[in-house]
């Protein structure tokens, strides 16, 4: 197994050489502003954020897993040896975390799931594991040693709630410093061990599986097409009427294929809605613009966690909704994630007004106020 090492990052080169193919270490690429212990402890008590506390050593196989939210009076010190606190969706609550995603605008917006932050003491780890999605591991502070392998036994150690590989043998390893970024494609086993008190930010990329797509499509067809054919046996042997025979199998394949016959326009709408609704973040926060539409202060930004996509058919997809929008303007909104100036096109202007009314597009000033409230 080869670990590619770069001294600088180039998106086009990355997509052509490494994306979903091989791990890549980029030295001194990103240096996020580390969250302090008070911010991490506060986040661990937040019911909207998924938090986990992992203790244990790989050598001793004594893993222990606890789920949050945690009582602030019972949360242990976050620099204890062989201990890791992991908190999901930190980009939804802290603008300093969300800012890191600007570096990943070369990826589809709908593919970015969240930023998880891991605060670990010396030796802290979650064990060797494998993910079904790609991840960028950004070292914010301290050092961490990463061990990787693309050939491994998939069996998990059933003694623990953690999905730890039973037999893991490292093929390559590296030590990352603050600012280093390790890209790990889906299906590559990896094991990170904090060398001292350290903080790691994980940008997770997650798309629906084929099974999830089939389930979503079935729900869509059931809701939007009342004339789908039913499975009724056309010919059968009355002496073996309950038998599932070749004729019944053929009919099953035929009616399932017929159900999937959507033209490109319908398939685009279904896929755009599905991708932007997948693992959608639903904060319990009401952003009231507090001003008339025409008086809002630019720039306007999408709420953290908003999933976006667009099509050349003239649709903008936002968190599962499809809205009419000029293609070039939709592309610009998705690419920038913000509105810098009011569009002259009436259709685009009506879209912006709708997004503001829905609370999905807000002034950056009001978002900053919300973020500061979260940090208190």
Question: Could you characterize what this model shows?
Answer:
- The chain is α+β, with helices and mostly antiparallel strands and 376 residues long.
- It contains nine helices and 18 strands.
- The strands form four sheets. Strands 1-2-10-7-12-6-5-3-4 form a nine-stranded mixed β-sheet, covered by helices on one side. The chain has a three-stranded antiparallel β-sheet with strand order 9-8-11, with no helix packed on it. A three-stranded antiparallel β-sheet has the order 17-13-18.
- The model has no long low-confidence stretch (mean pLDDT 90).
**Class derived from helix and strand content:** alpha+beta
Most strands sheet: 9 strands, mixed
The total of helices stands at 9
Number of domains: 3
Shape: globular
Indicate the CATH topology of the largest domain.
Jelly Rolls
Q: Which CATH architecture of the largest domain?
A: Sandwich
By CATH reckoning, the class of the largest domain would read: Mainly Beta
Q: How many strand elements?
A: 18
Low-confidence stretches: none
N→C terminal distance: 46 Å
The arrangement of helices and strands along the chain is EHEHEEEHEEEEEEEHHHEEEEHEHEH
Radius of gyration: 24 Å
The proportion of residues in beta strands is 15-25%
Helix content bin: 25-40%
């Amino acid at each position: 197994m080869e670990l590619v090492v770069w001294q600088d990052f180039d998106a086009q080169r990355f997509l052509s050489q490494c994306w979903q193919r091989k791990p890549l270490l980029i030295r001194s690429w990103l240096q996020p502003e580390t969250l302090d212990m008070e911010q991490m402890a506060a986040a661990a008590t937040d019911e909207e954020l998924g938090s986990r506390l992992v203790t244990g050593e790989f050598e001793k196989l004594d893993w222990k897993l606890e789920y949050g939210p945690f009582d602030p009076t019972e949360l242990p010190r976050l620099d204890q040896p062989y201990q890791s606190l992991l908190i999901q969706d930190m980009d939804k609550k802290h603008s300093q975390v969300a800012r890191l995603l600007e570096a990943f605008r070369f990826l589809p917006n709908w593919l970015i799931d969240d930023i998880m932050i891991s605060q670990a003491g010396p030796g802290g780890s979650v064990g060797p594991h494998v993910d079904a999605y790609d991840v960028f591991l950004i070292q914010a502070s301290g050092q961490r040693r990463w061990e990787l392998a693309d050939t491994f036994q998939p069996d998990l150690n059933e003694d623990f709630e953690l999905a730890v590989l039973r037999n893991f043998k490292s093929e390559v390893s590296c030590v990352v410093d603050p600012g280093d970024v390790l890209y790990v494609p889906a299906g590559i086993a990896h094991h990170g061990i904090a060398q001292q008190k350290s903080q790691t930010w994980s940008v997770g990329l997650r798309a629906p599986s084929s099974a999830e797509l089939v389930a979503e499509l079935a729900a869509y067809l059931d809701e939007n097409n009342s004339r789908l054919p039913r499975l009724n046996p056309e010919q059968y042997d009355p002496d073996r009427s309950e038998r599932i025979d070749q004729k019944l199998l053929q009919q099953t394949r035929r009616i399932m294929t017929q159900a999937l016959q959507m033209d490109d326009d319908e398939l685009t709408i279904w896929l755009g809605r599905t991708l932007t609704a997948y693992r959608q973040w639903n904060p319990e926060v009401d952003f009231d613009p507090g001003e008339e539409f025409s008086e809002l202060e630019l720039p306007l930004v999408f709420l953290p966690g908003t999933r976006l996509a667009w099509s050349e058919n003239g649709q903008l997809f936002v968190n599962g909704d499809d809205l009419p929008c000029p293609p070039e303007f939709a592309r610009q909104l998705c690419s920038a994630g913000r509105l810098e100036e009011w569009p002259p096109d009436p259709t685009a202007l009506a879209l912006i007004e709708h997004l503001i009314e829905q609370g999905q597009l807000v002034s950056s000033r009001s978002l900053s106020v919300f973020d500061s409230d979260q940090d208190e």
